Amino acid sequence: MEARSTIFCMACGVENPREARFCAGCGAAIGASAAAQPASSATSSVPPTAGTAVVREAIVASPLQRVAQVTMGICGGLVAIVVFMGFGVDGLEWGHRGGSFLIEIARPAPGYLIGAFLILLLNPAFFRRVAPRRRDAGMAEVRSYRRTLRTRDGIRLLLAPGGLRAGVVVLSLLWIGIGAIAWYNFGNLGDEGFDVATGMYAAMAIPVAGLIATACMWPIKPEVVYMDRKGAITRG
Prior knowledge:
alpha+beta; elongated
């Protein structure tokens, strides 16, 4: 009997040319195992059931982590408001003082601007939610999966383990950094004759809340689950 010209990847079930070294679907090495199989073995191979191969790991978010993630999002939004409205007259500027008929405004420090921008940029990069990939299930299925995760599996939120601990460290340092900048400028505004405005107080308080929320994201004894291509979850 003639040997098949294709072989199925044992990791994800995608059919590949027999001479391929890596799977076109998941990138797993398949060339070595294919070469080692005799022709008769390749002929009788049965492809794995589609969607059953484990392709991703995820951490079940604890109640504390769920609250912390919501709090981080709120703090990120508030710090953006403080930054952007700090440039408007009568907005959340850091301070103001009168000068004849003009009002001089003290605006957010450049270091605070950069730190706030990095926090908004890196927060979703480090703390990612896990769901089936769009290329495997489609965008509509991904949205439905997130909405029905609690009903289906008793899980409210899945977090990607990669970058989670690094994200806690990096973002904590950024919160500390912008908080220190705000406190430093708080003293300088008085020395320069500025009356401290609402934005200055917010610029000092938000980093404290953000730091606490970020620290609570640290995975302590996390429950790890495994997800296949279609989103089916296996615990343990």
